[in-house]
Amino acid sequence: MLSMNNKNELSLTYSLSVPPQQVFDAWTIPALMKSWLFKSEDNDIFSIDTDLRRGGRFSILERNGGEVIDHFGQYTKVEAPGQLAFTLEVPKHFSGVSQVSVCITETPGGCRMKFRQWDIDTRQTRKSWEMMLRNLKMMLES
User: Fold this and answer.
1) Buried b / exposed e along 19-44 (16+ C-beta atoms within 10 A)
2) pLDDT for 102-119, tens place per residue?
3) What ranges do the domains of the chain cover?
């Protein structure tokens, strides 16, 4: 499900048939992150460093062709298993610093994940997030 209030905010909601902790883990455990976060058919995620605490930083290095792309930021909220928020910078793909939040709530038979990104022109990131979140859903439910 997609809703865009304006070009500067992206909001996506997914229903998942797994417990909230499993979704939170997929966002925060490097071995799981590597399988879907910033992953595509054309690249390799070869390094993930995280300091999973409020104020902690992260860096996810992608190799695409001969180019190395850094996806980095700082955690602003870490409350397992329901909330994660962070800044995100990917100078190769967009200018500025975006804000990202993930809210995971328990539902009968699983959970609902609400993803939001704002403070940048999200027209540049929408398709990538839709693809990654579909991949996350497939990974968790397979």
Assistant:
1) ebebbbbbbbeeebbbebbbbeeeee
2) 999 999 999 999 999 999
3) 2-141
